[in-house]
Request: fold
Amino acid sequence: MSVKILGKSKGFYDTFERRPGINKEQTHYCPGCGHGILHKLIAEAVVDFGVAENLIFISPVGCSVFSFYYFNAGNFQAAHGRAPAVATGVKRAKPESIVISYQGDGDLAAIGGNEILHAANRGEAITVFFVNNAIYGMTGGQMAPTTLIGQKTTTTPYGRTLQNEGYPIRMAEIISSLESPVYVERVMLADTRSINAARKAVRKGIKNQIENKGFSFVEVLSTCPTGWKMTPPQSQEWIKSTLSETFPLGVYKDISDQVEPLDLSQNFAPSERIPKLIGLEQDKLDYDIATMKIAKEIDQEIRISGFGGQGVLTLGVWLSEIGMREDLNVSWIPSYGPEMRGGTANCHVKLSRTSIGSPLVTHPSILIAMNRPSLEKFEEDVIEGGAIIWDNSLIDIEPTRKDIKNIPVPATEIANELGNTRISNVVILGVLAGFSDFLDPLVVQRVLPLIFKKKHLLEINLKAFQKGLELGRELLA
Amino acid sequence: MAKQFVKGNEAVVKGAILAGCRAFYGYPITPASEIAHVAAQYMPLVGGTFLQAESEIAAINMVYGAAGTGIRAMTASSSPGFSLKQEGLSYLAGSELPCVVVDITRGGPGLGNIAPEQSDYHQVVKGGGHGNYKNIVLAPNSAQEMCDLTMLAFDLADKYRNPAVVLADGFIGQMMEPVNFPEPVTEFAEKTWAVRGVDEDRLNLISSIDLDPDDLERHNQKLQRKYEIVENNETRYEEYRLADAEFVVVGYGIVSRMIHTAVDELRDEGVPVGMLRPITLMPYPKKRLAELASEPRLKAFSVIELSNGQMVEDVRLAVNGAKPVEFYGRMGGNVPSIDELVREIKRMMRVI
Reply:
């Protein structure tokens, strides 16, 4: 090569102990391969910038899979194409580190096309080095997405054709079309001059990260004498004469001087503040559970059913919230599978003094039917001696069974009178509190302000509850 | 500490944050999306990362990166999404990185539907990705356990440097129950292997590549020894009314809740039946099953799953022909009623 690399950079390990075999001094790269030069440029830069000890280097799959033999850094080896995703996870967790994602053309532009595009588009504060040598080197000289039209590889033995494989893909151009990347340049490793230009680009890409500027992408046209079946000098010449014709060199985007540095500071909340931050502050209720007026034995299985929008699922949640605050075991589950068909929304609620097995209610002790299909569908499931509460302002039939408590409630009518048709479910809650033996009205009234999400509707909700409560007490009497 | 009425999917995230998880990488999929919603709500508030990745593949690889730095990291998905994570899980297991993945199983194969199934047992418990690895797998059956087992998953993942999967279904994810949330975890094991971008870590390497067959075999043997230790130390199961049972019904997750009720009904009829519920699916309570199989009092086992019969294979391996093992399964998102279970358990008993 035209640049003599004398001695190792401090960015490399002194000896390459991870490299198998007896040769711990030299890299595994073929003579004339560009990887070694690019490695050297990167190692020099991180040492010169004083960030070598903060470097986290992500090795890809391909010839550079063993970059971790060499870089004196924290090293990751990533799955094929996934280095930008791995780099994202690393940089987000350790924003103060310098993260380099190093990929070849098959890795970055084929199998990892999605990962690089989105890491770039998010503007991850990392530096990507993309080695484009127009071929899969490691796996045996197959076609890469960057292989030129007519170029022969082991999988394009007659040459790449437009008809079969399409045009080579230009990654620097694609990446530079995105808003987020701050710096995109294509360079080559073909002679002293171009390597010096590459050195500048490498340094700029790393410096951008040190200054928290955002996503930098340096595409490097590199030699693969083995894959190309050329001598090293022929390879360098081919980059200049041919490869760089399809992949023109140049700065495709550079807004690094125009952008403000990103704020990558990390502020983990202290553990004592965590419960409050995730909404786990216990609400305080000023009542004594021992004085609650509810039955000694409770084993209620409730099915609540109606049209979507009538608040049947919500009513189930309220019942459970109240039950929990009465120190009962409770479970709630929305309807599932085939039962969801036919325009009814319904839920299963269990309230019990003992532990709850299946949360499903097959034979309800109470059915709350808010529309006709619900009454028709679930009436027969109710246990003997159970109750059917149904909205007789909406349902134009009556339960046919005589072995149940028949409780018609004009819930929607009452809600409309109060001025909001959507609170019919609160009327039903009031009725339940009025006549049942498992809801203590005092507890319910204390719990309601805690569970009504819309505080400005609290007043009307409490009115609806009161109406229902009176109705329920009349029923009891 | 605080008792809250929450969905299983919400309990997962709150448990994870209490366990010190500060990185969540996800991708939307029903019926697991709520986990991502809740993580998106709370992760930024505690200073952690929530990121919606471009794919399930990217999400699990972001977890790989985050976990490699030593931070507690997780992702969550549902069956088709879990399939896509298999590549990443193999790399995490091979690199011995701890992480937690939640799978809210839905109906399959292919796009299937969004109703609950237990058809991911094979792909989660038996590895799924390439190579001689295993995930640690925990199977909650309540909202409380969605919290507790997620927290435990982080501990086990760290302790054994291994991916841990919380395997649930659409049912448990959607179900709301009171959850007692514990205090935040404040003490964590030191991760001397992590790559954090500091001088001391410069010899550390997160990798699963090893070209030398002897070295790679040694690495694999080490992994197998680890799984043995996990099996010896971490097997968890629940027994219900087994003391005088003649017939054992085996089921995990939501099915165990139904079996619980069916067992009560059968007991009311005087049928001597009990339940064994594996809480850990890897390690599997095979020793306990083998012990039960050797008891003369016990006549047979029946296994109930929301699948074509996947876990039943492990029951059969453990029982090893000592007693008959019957199976009943529902698929497609259908869930058996208690009446149906009672009927089927009786049918299976008559078969014996």
